[in-house]
């Protein structure tokens, strides 16, 4: 029903219409669906894909990244790999004004392409990126410190799924109104009033995406594609330590845009020189009307308060919490939580930090377990996953940057360490900085310690008076500081309900009794929302109507029919 | 597909489901539809409705308004009728904290009612208000200064249509995701992973609606009902000079809520004592998470900058503009514009202020018309509509407040007055303050004069070098100051297209060649968007997805199936 749907659809739209239709169904049903296979197996991707992707990645190292953008020609190289690799990729550097001017000039023709034309191009970009998913995975691995399989999944397939999800929401939102409508109103005995109305989808302006170090693609793609498909040219400002994954993304996006006859400056990379504060300059630029940010609470709140000319979407820090009341599968609970704490050395924004456990212990299928036994069970599960360095590093990956190491030093002094963080030699990368998770015992009174985020492989086992007390602490801390995830273990329906009531009150997503292959720190695109926007950890969810609806406006014209 | 839809639907939902379904279709099609007849004729509303409504209105005068709300028991009476009536209605007065506390306490049960339960109650409130539409119309007339028929239509039927439209958008948004979803993911050769996911619609908190003097109901209802149906208790802060229409609204809303078993404090009236600045206190309250405001640019921008804890929706001032290039119906154009300038003495936020006309004149079906002849034609049309006082006042109504009179004095000194504003004796209300529209001639160089809003019966005929110059002025002034409406008259498709291109660039809705019964200052619910949110005159449109999507969040819980 869009204007132009009776005309031949854009060829790229036609090519990807089935995928978009399936995605539109998926966001309505929110059951399981994925468009991009998450297994890097040669059976899925072919025998040569992995080696080709690795080679493509390696070809970027110690060289000028191939990107033809406006700018003076100088280059920046700011990355340092958590795996100890020498990266030294040199990216073209431009001033904020140059980038914004180039993006602004590209806007009108992109706006005129309409929802269908833009969706076709964006879906072709995703297809192109998927064709280079091993290249992307290597780039994510060696900048973020994620182990390869996780980098392939979270940084590749799942990031593409989240991008598609954002495109689907935005397309649904742009096309919920017809492109043109007839309007006929009876008036007395005369001819009816007849008007033809045209509804134009109009972007907000230039969009800015500010990437993070740990999930350069996964956390950037939803905003990037939600803004782009709604007509906004996008400037991608990567984290200085994780530029390559987004540089590759921008490279292929520009390639597709140019092939489709659009100005490639619709997607621009904005790498920054050390200390340049390019994100701040861009975020305050009057032409920048949408900002997506993932990172610290401090900077996220600064953006919300200061980038007043823009709609600002932020994901910040929080206090992910698990309330442990009882379980009918003690071993499964410990395994499940142990995996959550170990994966990517706890460097996910969704990793549980505060484990609230009654000091008198809990009832389990193995009988009563004391507080110390519960903590020991979780610690043992972590220990088992990390005991063998070769297998362990495929879960933990490497430590993303020095601030995590500093926190690991600091946390050893705040309470009794139940599980010590160990330094592990990476069998394949001798320069990799690998640390196993630590668990520190606290009491409910140690509020000052556990009510701040300790990003990294750091969790607290907090002894409470009772489960009711645990829920009170969850309410107070998540209410005040926010969280992206919460979990509860209980065999008592009343406790599960009480936890759900608290989760609703403080606006955090809750996972109940996870003992198998689903983990509190993982969310599935098209089904799970990531973040709620209902607590201080994030002002938006990935992805829902509110995430896309403010990225464009409808401007109407009407004429007598 | 909401959780609970297999259960018996809420009886109020069942009662109004057909209306809601029809409204949901209307917002998808955006053709003509209305749920509430706009004709106050006895043939539509019955022989006694008008008299009963008038009597109900009069019963409020010089008395304590019947509203049982929290508070100390003191009362405020701040209204002064543009028609010279003694109103002296005394409203219960409460402190901001009392109102917020009462609203907050009402939230959990309302949240738990779910989208369907809340929609049923909100639709019943609309039905109840519709049953009292003559009472409302009288209250709107005698506080805003609108003539009766307009008060009935804009303040009654159309306001209810806009409320229903907002409810429909919000309901669609709340139910675009299922209440529960199954999720099943195949994993290797074992059993698939199976989860049951529950998606809770969670309101943002307490909502505040700040009403205006001219359209106390029409401009307040969309925000009021969008916030209420999404689960937010609403505090309604009326303009001190237009309390009664919103007091009546709150009265019947509370009646319906109580009958349906909910806390009536879900809707609260917050009349203020002179100089109290209650809107500011409420808008900055940490529990207030949504603010809707209609009024001055200055205060709207203050709210946007300072009510940082809330989503703020504002409609402010702008420079409504008409570009006159040529016409094949000179008489129709003059009649149409004359009506627009005359209706409610130009005191609509959508009334055209700046008429941009080439100084060399325009081509018409009556031959070439000089600049002065075009202006004279429009002035004559205004003159004809206002010549007879008895008929004139049924269009102009009365002047809403003294600041309009002050501007009328001031404008007589800024240029050559082509059409003088006249004082008219109202035949029925000797105390009524009635003024006819004025038109002042300016040149394109008088930017300082025409680039501010002169709210009231004030328009400028601005001589430009050419239509291209007119479009440049439109681009510059609307781009910088915003507008709610724009119009263009031309027989040249290229000019219409150029005007539409400018309208898209500056984000203003455009009406082309209106010469009949549709006017640039009127928008039809379910079809026309009011405001675009794409220029400085408003940061949101009535009503679209962006207007409702940020009023709630989805909080998810998941369990193994």
What tags apply to this protein structure?
homodimer, 561 residues, alpha/beta, Aldehyde Dehydrogenase, Chain A, domain 2, 2 domains, five-stranded parallel beta sheet, 19 helices, Ald_DH/histidinol_DH (chains A, B), Phenylacetic acid degradation protein paaN (chains A, B), NAD (chains A, B)
Strand neighbour order, sheet with most strands of chain A: 15-18-19-12-10-20-21
What structural class should be given to the helix and strand makeup of chain A? alpha/beta
Average pLDDT level of chain A: 96
Beta fraction of chain A: 15-25%
Q: What ranges of chain A have pLDDT less than 50 throughout 5 or more consecutive residues?
A: 1-6
**Largest interface summary:** A-B, 67 and 67 residues
Per DSSP, the total helix count of chain A is 19
Explain this structure to me?
2 copies of one chain form a homodimer. The first copy, chain A, is α/β, with parallel strands linked by helices. In chain A, 42% of the residues lie in helices and 18% in strands. In chain A, the strands form 6 sheets. The first copy, chain A, has a 7-stranded mixed β-sheet, with helices on both faces. Chain A has a 5-stranded parallel β-sheet with strand order 7-6-5-8-9, sandwiched between helices. A 3-stranded antiparallel β-sheet of chain A has the order 3-4-22, with no helix packed on it. In chain A, helix 11 links the parallel strand 8 and strand 9. The N terminus of chain A is likely disordered. At the A-B interface, helix 1, strand 3, strand 4, helix 18 and strand 21 of A face helix 1, strand 3, strand 4, helix 18 and strand 21 of B. Strand 21 of chain A pairs parallel with strand 22 of chain B, so a sheet runs across the interface.
